[in-house]
Amino acid sequence: MFEITHVRGIEGLRALRPTWEALYGESFNPSFYCHWHWYESISQHLLDSDIYYFVVRAQQRCIAIVPLQLHAWRKGGHSWQVLRLPSHDHLEMMDALIHRDQAPLPAFAALHDYLLHQRELSWDMLLFPKVRARAGLASALLPQEGHVRQCGHSCYLQGNPQLPPEATLSHKHLKNISRLQRKLETEHQQSLHFHHCSDPQQLEAAFATFLQVEASGWKGEQGENTCISAHPRYKAHYHHLLQCFGPAGDFAVNLLLLGEQPLAAQLCIRAGQAWHLMKIGYDEAFQAYAPGNILLWLFIQQQAAQPQPWEVNLVTGPGWAERWHFNEEPVYRAEFFNTTLRGRLLSTLLKGKELLKGQIKGERDDSVASATSKHKPQGRTEKGTAQ
């Protein structure tokens, strides 16, 4: 029923391009991290080893492309081979391409069987981390109980023609943002300006401004030195995305300016109706005014003023987003183990560690409950009324 083949590395990716781009246009809820140019960029600038692209066909039509990378993983004093979605610090979410008219579970089962029986790649665990609930791959993974667990969430806000964004977000938080915005303008006697730059002619200058803002704080030389400009490969990756997505208006830099001074910046990429915030930065000299929050609120307001459907997506679920009360999309992790002796040993090792963690947590909870009951006032019910 299914025919499965695979290619490897950047040359294999280039050979797949016509097939990939045709499937992208017909796939279920594709995001920017499914785009061909995204894989071109991470292969050239971020990853140190090749990606294997597994192509699933039915009746000679491509219905799925699953990118997997082989990693060595140290666990329990041994080295294990993990075949997984590509991994890097700058890859927050990943997905596979699956045709929207295709039942994903049978296609995935065929791929799983193919991976179990092929001889080119030796692997112990098949891993799909950081798969959001709306991703095409999630529809193949979620029905498989025992292999999938939630590992986090992603925050987003979708436009609702019946409700303005302030009706769904935290009123208290938005009120505080407005207060800080007024305070900033009053104390510095200058006006704040929001600039959404998606014009290809202005993107280079805006990108340079973003790099400057991001490097000004804890990510820069005075902090952890993790800013993009400190790493030529990271900078080349995001500049590559600018060059590929910019001409179509799908790459943008958002800037918050105090007069002409940039205070905060966002790197954004669009897929469908959603703008995804890939990277954010702000000038720490103005941290007390929460410039990043001000910029995000101005961007949301700008999108809400558009007549077409819109979404602002944070990609991840950062702790600071809790104050906003955004919509939360579950993010999942799925694990499948090879039927070899090594695969079964790794499965046993990880399950044993999970059981041990659960036991330790249970003992801690029991200790807390016991300590609480010892100090609980006598003669009162749970509601605090006298018996």
From TrEMBL:
Region (Disordered): 360-387
Domain BioF2-like acetyltransferase: 172-306
Domain of life from the UniProt record: Bacteria
Xref: Pfam families: Acetyltransf_6 (PF13480)
Record protein name field: BioF2-like acetyltransferase domain-containing protein
Organism from which the protein derives: Pokkaliibacter plantistimulans
